[in-house]
Amino acid sequence: xxxxxLILQPVAAELRDIIVAELRxxxxxxxxxGLVASFTGSAETAELKAKLADADYVVFWDVxxxxxxxxxxxxxxxxxxxxxxxxxxxxxxxxxxxxxxxxTPGSNAVPVAEFAVGLMIAIGRRIVTAHNSMAExxxxxxxxxxRSIMLSGKTVGIVGLGAIGKEVARRLTGFGxxxxxxxxxxxxxxxxxxxxxxxxxxxxxxxxxxFVCLCCPLTPQTRGMIAAAQLATMKPxxxxxxxxxxxxxxxxxLIAALRDGPLAGAAIDVFxxxxxxxxxxxxxxxxxxxxPHCASTAFENSAKGIRQWLANIGRVAxxxxxxxxxxxx
Length: 329
Description:
Blueprint: E1 3-7, H1 13-30, E2 35-39, H2 45-52, E3 57-60, H3 67-70, E4 78-81, H4 91-97, E5 100-102, H5 109-124, H6 127-135, H7 141-147, E6 155-159, H8 163-172, E7 178-182, H9 189-195, E8 197-199, H10 202-208, E9 211-214, H11 228-232, E10 238-242, H12 251-260, E11 263-268, E12 288-290, H13 302-317
Parallel strand pairs: 1-2, 1-3, 3-4, 4-5, 6-7, 6-9, 7-8, 9-10, 10-11, 11-12
């Protein structure tokens, strides 16, 4: 019997080829027979509903699964997030419908961590400003010198020490950084020593850090948790990097902190909504780097995530339990 895996949003031809190749290569040894991939041509609701009508499994990331779409999928067994944040699926409806929900923790941790550290260096050393000045025919060497902030030897606070946060911390050790972190449950002391990190409550982390890197999920508890009061406590001249979710930061307060202090700069990969309004001030500030939610989108890492969600689809098709690390519900 044929079962359909729907990729919920339009993808590049190269990614479609990788998905089809991984489905073929995993084959009978790892997947039940009869699994086929289906692709959408647009993210229009009418097309998504039509495709969902025949879907047994759905893979989603930027395009989410609100109640309206879940109700359009009568055969759906598993909704699999390619990534970790599940704020864009209606979990209550999925639960009521008996649809399992899973995610791919760790599959994009390395590319996001690389990107995060790259953003710290790029905004601290004003690399984009330097490039733009050259493209405009200027030689702004002294201007860049005056505003340049090194990463080496600084105190970096990581908010959220999951798979991504741990990979960020691992890379920062090579820069001789003091690494602080904040999570609901601190690591065992032995693991903190092994990783070279120290736990702080959020208030102390913000006060003590030269760079703050947001790596936490968007939840009711984290939504808007970086606002004017928190930003005001950060070190003068400090830098905020957000590779988590836009909703964690109160955007208007961040803009004010970048204009009036204490922040020297910010690097933002995530927004709410996405894409942001072209008039958003963050897109036009010379002490801000903005990127289009692409920290996780390394072409050569794609197959890793695909294999993870295909393996979980295979488990559900065979009636097996999902790994606890991947299962949302």
